Amino acid sequence: MDANLQYSDEIYDSSRRPHPLIDEFLSLWKYRELVYQFTARTITARYKRSVIGVAWTMLNPLATMIILTLVFSQIFRFRVEYYPVYVLSGLMAWNFFSHTTSASMGEMIWSGGLLNRIYVPKSVFAVSAIGTGLVNLGLSFIPLVLIAVVIGVKITPAILVMPFSVILLSIFALGVGLFLATAAVFFADMIPVYEVLLTIWMYATPIIYPLEILPADLLWLFRLNPLLYLVQIFRDPLYLGVVPEWRVWAIAAGFSLTAFLIGGLIFTSKTNEYAYRI
Amino acid sequence: MSTLTASNTAAIERQPTNSHPVISFENVAVLYRVPRERVSGIKEYAVRWLQRRLSYEEFWALQDISFEVKRGEVFGVIGRNGAGKSTMLKVMARVLHPTRGRVVMRGKVAPLLELGAGFHPELTGRENIYLNSALLGFTRKQVDSMFSSILDFAEIGDFIDAPLRTYSTGMVARLGFSVASCIRPEILLVDEVLSVGDSQFQEKCLDRMNSYQKQGTTIVIVSHNMGTIQNFCSRALLLEHGRTVALGNVSEVIQHYTG
Lengths: 278, 259
Known about the structure:
The complex is a heterodimer. Chain A is an all-alpha fold. Chain A has 12 helices and 1 strand, in the order βαααααααααααα. The radius of gyration of chain A is 21 Å and the shape is globular. In chain B, the strands form 2 sheets. Chain B has a 6-stranded mixed beta sheet, sandwiched between helices. Chain B is globular, with a radius of gyration of 21 Å. Chain B starts with a helix and ends with a helix. The interface between A and B is large, with 43 and 54 residues. Strand 1 (11-13) of chain A pairs antiparallel with strand 4 of chain B, so a sheet runs across the interface.
């Protein structure tokens, strides 16, 4: 056997750990291969048994877009220029958020059997949910750009800032996901409650309708929604071809980091209890 | 209590690792809190909390456990069902955090507790080796370099690229043992693991454990089988209702248990 395959000097001392948040981070780094394995497993499991495989990830938003475009242009009859791109880019950001946060919560509960049997950093489930979401987001980005080009949206260098939008979106989703995962361990009905909440949240966010149709005196209420900004920094660079002003970025980043810190602190403060509770 | 802990901590850093116990338990206790009635909903929980009616069945799975295991020792844990043996292994494996007391484990722990706990039936043997290694905290590089030795040891042959659901129980156990033990760990936790697989493979597992032990690996074995404990262990601990009843020389502890 290879001599350099020896373990390094590891010491586990139950009473002398660094701050839980730091401990979790260090442990997660050590188990980074597991994040990759979980992400790869979810993605291959999803595509292995379906006939058209990866195409689903691209067809699903397309179908939703066509339906919504028909509904909103024919029935509600408000005019938004390049509406298909408006709605599709908004939906992509939203789907990323809703899928990753639900998955963080679900994976944590479903892997209870694992947490009871071997040690793994508990945040590995939430982080790999983000990983899976990023892959899917990347895949559905291809049809989005194609449609934009086909219907005549002018693509500008502004789309180069979109990776930063995705990073902020991911940090926000991770924070919310960690918080939900903690809550779901303690309250079994968290999953259905969150489903209802997501539906309300989606309609409270300008995804399928433009901000302008909202009553002016209620606008302040809608502006309390973090996703309004996070969707905006994702949508504007492609749809309008402009980089949003710095104030929008600052608000989006503020919400993301706050969510991440709160979610991370709550999640890690309960790390020692999960194996007892699940 | 706190001053005692502080002085211990200082001592740990000054001395070389070899002179220290590899495993040390100091007044370890584990408390399970089982809700008396199942309160699962948020609403129900809130109502009960307001009424102060949240009652739990408290159950000490381990109480006041203190012992040390030195480098290269083979340590046996015996006791009846429900005595706390598995809980103790879970505390060592870092699955359960002790409610009270302190646990120190010096060196990488290989838990041969639930072999193949992370196996996925739809994935192939090959994919499962990578998944399971990651669950045990190995890096990609480590798995790549030990892949062929895992394969050799497990004797899976051409099944390596077939989904795990096509494997026999024995094959799954072999693969699990092979992955978990492929790098010599400092501490090996064994929970009735030798009851799986055929006798020839059991022999192979024992050989590997013996050779690791000669190289300095510390082994903790939990078993109902007094023969196993008598044959392998130098010292043992007898648990009863989560408390230490006897600790020390293996023959004496076994006598305490059977007599």
